[in-house]
Amino acid sequence: MSRSTGLVLLADQALHDTGDHPENSRRIPTVLDRLQGSDDWDRFQIVEPRAAGIEDIRRAHTKAHIDLVRSSAESAPSWIDGDTPVSKASYDVALKAAGAALSSVDAVVDPSESSPDSLFAMIRPPGHHATEGRPMGFCLFNNAAVAARYAVEHHGLDRVAILDWDVHHGNGTQDILWQDPSVLFISLHQWPLYPGTGWLEERGAGDGEGFTVNLPMPPSSGDREHSQAMIEVIEPILEAYDPQLLIVSAGQDGHAADQLADQLITAAGFNSLADRAAGFAAGRGIGLVALHEGGYNLATLPQLDHAILAGFGDFATDLSDPYSELGAIDVGWPERLEEIKRAQRPHWPV
Ligand SMILES: [Zn+2]
C-alpha cells in the first residue's frame, strides 16, 4: 500500500534572520527549490500551519524561558548564548514553528480523507536543544516536546514516541521529558559531540525511567551502523512501547558532507531511516510527523530532505551520493551496539 506524505511550510521562516550563521534563512528555501523543481512536488499535500499559543509552549517550557526569548527578540539583534542569535521577529517565528508542529499533529492524529499518512514540517528555528528553562544551540522552543505534550494533553494520547536522528543529542527534549512516561524519547547521535549529553546510561528518572533511550554512535558511523541501530534496538523498543503517534526530530547533520559533525550517513541512509520509520507507523496505523532540526550543508541538504520524503512516501528518488564510498570504516561499532543493548535490557526487549 502506498503511503501519502506532505509538507508544512512556514512562510515567515526567513524573518528569523541569523545572517551567515550555519542555521540560516537560506536552508529551507534551498530545499524547497529542489522539491518544487522536481516531478515529485505534486505528490506532496501542503498543510497550512497556525501559530502556537503561550499555553502550548508552556507545556514544555517555563514562563521565564518564554520571557527570555521574547525580550531577546525585542532587543535584537542579540544572542541568547554563544551559538544562538535572534532577530526582531525570532519570537514570532519560533511560535509559528512550534505551531506548524501542532498543525502537523492535528492533521495526522485526526485523519480526514485528505490527511496524509506523514508530514514533514519545514520549520526553523530548530528545537531539540531547548531545555525546559533554557533556549540554546540554535534552538528557541522545543518543537518536538511541545508537539508531543500537545498530542497527549489536547488529543488525549497515552503514548507518543519521538525518534531524534539529528547528529547532536536532543538534550532539550530529554530534559523536558525526563520523568514523563507518556513520551518515549529515542536519540541517535554522535558521541562525543555538542552538547555533551546523551550517554547510554541516561535513561530517564521517576515515572519516566526507561523512557529515555540514548544511542551514542561512535564518530565516523555511517549507514550500516545507523541501520543496525534502527533494526536491532529502536524498532524492538518502538514495537514494545506501541506508540499512538511517531514524531521524528529530523536533523540531517549526520551526513558525510555536513560541516558540524563527523558522521558518514549518506542520502541512501537517510532514505532508509525515513522508510523504516514510516513503515513502522503505517504498520501500526499511526501518524508520523517529522520536524526539521539540523542539516547545514546547503549543497547536500536538499537531496537529503528529498530522500527522506521519498522514504516517508515510499517512492523512488535519486540516492546517488559521492560519499557512499566512505562507508565501512571500523569504528568499534559491534562493541558499542552491545553496550547500548545491555543498557536497555532492564527496560526493553532488545
Ligand atoms: Zn544537529
Structure summarized in a few sentences:
The chain is an alpha/beta fold. Helices cover 36% and strands 15% of the residues. Helix 1 links the parallel strand 1 and strand 2.
What do these coordinates show?
By secondary structure, the protein is α/β, with parallel strands linked by helices. It has a single domain (5-344), classed as 3-Layer(aba) Sandwich (Arginase, Chain A). Helices cover 36% and strands 15% of the residues. The chain has ten helices and ten strands. It has helices spanning 27-36, 54-57, 63-74, 90-109, 143-153, 171-177, 223-241, 267-284, 301-313, 333-344; strands at residues 5-9, 45-47, 78-81, 84-86, 118-122, 160-164, 183-190, 212-217, 245-250, 287-292. The strands form two sheets. An eight-stranded parallel β-sheet has the order 2-1-5-10-9-6-7-8, with helices on both faces. A two-stranded antiparallel ribbon has the order 3-4. Helix 1 packs across helix 9 (301-313). The longest helix has 20 residues, at 90-109. Zinc ion binds at residues 166-168, 251, 253, 293-294.
